[in-house]
């Protein structure tokens, strides 16, 4: 991780304060005064601030059940931020792993570990996200085959990746996708002449939503490891 981030994660200093400490020569890495805030440091480097060793706080991994009319951003805008529901210290260090629209409910993952969240969001890792979708009209018979093959979304160069559709009843389906284009689920149904009237994320990889709306919990070690490569 970058040196300035490491300092923020191991002290109560803000980023500008961490930068000032580096520029004032107060920070050493392996006995040498650090010159560059962007240098990469790891747990096994000896990082000191005014002679005291710094140890970064462990990464945090949470899930929450997002209510409708909340937004996946750090700032309250038209609706309150989902971060208002999470009572942990230094909540501003957390980011959302795959945002949901304001009117979408369900499973949201949060972390301060960028490498871990990359594994979940990058399409090449094919991490499955499962959505329960309410539709304005009965699902047509050919949609499962179209989604399996991929559909063309407006403004995109490539077809959507193969997706799995399971019909619960004519106007309620489960859709599993492995990518996260902007408004992807709504645009996929629009591309086949239907309209999403309710959207709820139930599952990401092996993690199933299991807390009531507005509640959160830390992930277990096994859940964290299920996406591989956590730091
Ligand atoms: N796809 C959407 O259209 N909206 C979401 O919130 C998530 C996936």
Automatic annotation (TrEMBL):
Gene3D superfamilies: Alpha-L RNA-binding motif (3.30.70.1560), Pseudouridine synthase I, catalytic domain, N-terminal subdomain (3.30.70.580), RNA-binding S4 domain (3.10.290.10). One of its GO terms (cellular component) is cytosol. SUPFAM superfamilies: Alpha-L RNA-binding motif (SSF55174), Pseudouridine synthase (SSF55120). InterPro entries: PsdUridine_s_RsuA/RluB/E/F_cat, PsdUridine_synth_cat_dom_sf, PsdUridine_synth_RsuA/RluA, PsdUridine_synth_RsuA/RluB/E/F, PsdUridine_synth_RsuA/RluB_CS, RsuA_PseudoU_synthase, S4_RNA-bd, S4_RNA-bd_sf. Pfam families: PseudoU_synth_2, S4. One of its GO terms (biological process) is enzyme-directed rRNA pseudouridine synthesis. Its EC number is 5.4.99.-. It comes from the Bacteria. CDD domains: PseudoU_synth_RsuA, S4. It is an enzyme of class 5 (isomerase). It catalyses: uridine(516) in 16S rRNA = pseudouridine(516) in 16S rRNA. Residues 1-63 form the RNA-binding S4 domain. Keywords: Isomerase, RNA-binding, rRNA processing. GO terms for molecular function: 16S rRNA pseudouridine(516) synthase activity; RNA binding. Responsible for synthesis of pseudouridine from uracil-516 in 16S ribosomal RNA. PANTHER family: PSEUDOURIDINE SYNTHASE (PTHR47683:SF4), PSEUDOURIDINE SYNTHASE FAMILY PROTEIN-RELATED (PTHR47683). NCBIfam families: pseudouridine synthase. Belongs to the pseudouridine synthase RsuA family. This is Pseudouridine synthase.
